[in-house]
């Protein structure tokens, strides 16, 4: 018998909340069953296994991030757009550490192509149009921004800047300023 009220969407959202609480690596179908006080077998009509659950949480996180980024970018360009975009990723990672980790979960090529992942690259390229970068420089810049944002956020969420001055917000602001300057003065061959 399927427990009333359990749906795939509800389970995935609860899994995402669990990821934020205990870490994405700790999310399993068993842990989710304990959360709902049901037997593991009752979840298998909604989820194939823990990998399926993690994939679905990753898809949710990618969609949430893309939606927030699109909203933040609306009507902005240049440095204003770059800062808003950067803040979306940082704020999301700080508010939802498990989901942020999930957004980095490896997806098979078909799932990745159908996910919100490609929207992230499109949104980044939309920002770069304000900097007039030609291809393949846009691709290099997309990779640079992703690396800087993810690297900084990973260090910050791990507590890497907790006990040093200046505070991490000041560094973040300076990094966005430096990226803006680099993008405006992109090196040419």
From TrEMBL:
Domain HTH tetR-type, first and last residues per copy: 5-65
DNA-binding span(s): 28-47
Keyword annotations of the record: DNA-binding, Transcription, Transcription regulation
Stored InterPro entries: Homeodomain-like_sf, HTH_TetR, MT1864/Rv1816-like_C, Tet_transcr_reg_TetR-rel_C_sf
PROSITE patterns, per database record: HTH_TETR_2
Keyword DNA-binding: yes
Molecular-function GO terms, alphabetical: DNA binding
Domain of life assignment: Bacteria
A Pfam family recorded for this sequence: TetR_N
Residue ranges that the Swiss-Prot or TrEMBL entry lists as coiled coil: none
Protein's recorded name: TetR family transcriptional regulator
């Amino acid at each position: 018998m399927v427990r009333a009220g359990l749906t795939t969407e509800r389970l995935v959202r609860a899994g995402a909340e669990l990821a934020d609480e205990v870490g994405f690596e700790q999310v399993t179908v068993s842990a989710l069953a304990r959360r709902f006080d049901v037997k593991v077998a009752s979840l298998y009509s909604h989820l194939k296994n823990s990998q399926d659950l993690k994939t679905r949480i990753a898809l949710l996180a990618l969609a949430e991030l893309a939606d927030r980024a699109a909203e933040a970018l609306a009507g902005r360009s240049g440095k204003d757009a770059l800062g808003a975009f950067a803040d979306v990723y940082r704020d999301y990672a700080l508010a939802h550490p498990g989901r942020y980790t999930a957004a980095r979960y490896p997806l098979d090529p078909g799932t990745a192509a159908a996910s919100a992942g490609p929207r992230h690259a499109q949104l980044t390229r939309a920002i770069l149009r304000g900097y007039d970068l030609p291809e393949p420089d846009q691709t290099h810049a997309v990779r640079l921004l992703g690396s800087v944002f993810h690297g900084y956020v990973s260090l910050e969420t791990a507590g890497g800047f907790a006990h040093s001055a200046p505070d991490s917000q000041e560094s973040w602001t300076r990094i966005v300023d430096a990226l803006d300057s680099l993008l405006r003065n992109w090196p040419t061959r």
